Amino acid sequence: MHKTVAIQGIKGSFHHIVSQQYFKNEVDVIECPSFQDTVSALLNEQADVIVMAIENSIAGSIIPNYALIDANNLQVVGEYYLDVQHHLMALPNQSISDIMEVHSHPMALLQCAVFFKDYPHIKLVEAKDTADVAKHIQVNKSIGIAAIASDLAAETFSLNILNRSIQTIKHNETRFVIVQRYSEEINKESINKASIKFELEHKRGSLATVLNVLSDCKLNVTKIQSLPIIETPWKYAFFVDVTFAEYKDFEKANTILELMTTHIKVLGAYKNAKK
Ligand SMILES: O=C(O)C(=O)C[C@]1(C(=O)O)C=C[C@@H](O)C=C1
After folding, report:
1. Is residue 228 scored above 80 in pLDDT?
2. Rounded to the nearest whole angstrom, what is the distance from the C-alpha of residue 44 to the centroid of ligand 1?
3. Among 23, 41, 186, 254, fewest CB within 10 Å belongs to which?
4. Which residue ranges run through the membrane (predicted)?
5. Distances from the Cα of 70 to the Cα of 22, 44, 105, 118, angstroms
6. Which pLDDT score is estimated for 202?
7. Predicted ipTM?
8. HSE (side-chain half, CA atoms, 13 Å) at 74
């Protein structure tokens, strides 16, 4: 079935690239100005699914996206790891000494921060998404402004690449999650990863005990992220990703965690995409 996918950003953005690669080009794309707007598009049924960046190997977690998934009771049904190569691009005939400002998505700017230490005269400006800046430069014929964006953005908006792969470390990956309103029928044979959320009593060893249960049930923790519980200052909710060989091991751990934690919920069970 042809799906409609909501992405933050426009065509040429990394979200667009993932939507094409994950769904093998068989999707219609709704371009949204913010992550909150992708969630609105899903909730009002304009979109069937969201492709949402959740963490990057250089810049870390996109914490507000954890909160969006949780607060709207959305379900993670898949994940995708993209090799992210950021290029500095501008109108043809511009050289790096002409560039006074570089605009890009905040996560892209974070991933390239070290590169700009050698260019202290360049002002870094946060923008909606990487491709949108490339488009603006082309449409407004902006002199002195460069974008940090993908090869696809440079090609789509006819910009010239001044420097390739300017992120701090060449091996740079962003993990995206595929999010829906409801979970799909689970084929327990092919599911080997899950994302859960829980809260704990503020007492010594409560998190350590949970981690021991996960280990005893043969679950491997791949990520742990805490988020503040805003109603109770300095109390945290834990978002944990686990991988496993057998779905029944995950079910067993979940049954035990239901007794040991509060507000536990499975944010999604899906196929591990990390090779
Ligand atoms: O601006 C884009 O092109 C995006 O798709 C956004 C985004 C992000 O949200 O992290 C996606 C991947 C890269 O890590 C940098 C930016």
Report:
1. yes
2. 24
3. 186
4. none
5. 23, 17, 23, 40
6. 86
7. 0.91
8. 29
The burial of 258, by beta-carbon neighbours within 10 Å (0-12 exposed, 13-18 middle, 19 or more buried), is given as exposed
CATH of the domain at 30: 3.40.190.10
- Structural domain contains residue 188: no
- Is there a domain that residue 187 lies in? no
Tell me, in angstroms, the distance from the centre of ligand 1 to residue 9's CA: 8
pLDDT score at 187: 84
Note whether residue 168 is domain-resident: no
Q: Which domain holds residue 93?
A: 87-163
Q: Which residue has the tokens 């996960």?
A: 214
**Sign, Cα dihedral of 75, 80, 47, 15:** positive
Cα distances (angstroms) measured from residue 142 to each of 28, 125, 139, 185:
30, 14, 8, 50
Question: Alpha-carbon torsion 188, 194, 198, 203, what sign?
Answer: positive
Three-state DSSP state, 68: helix
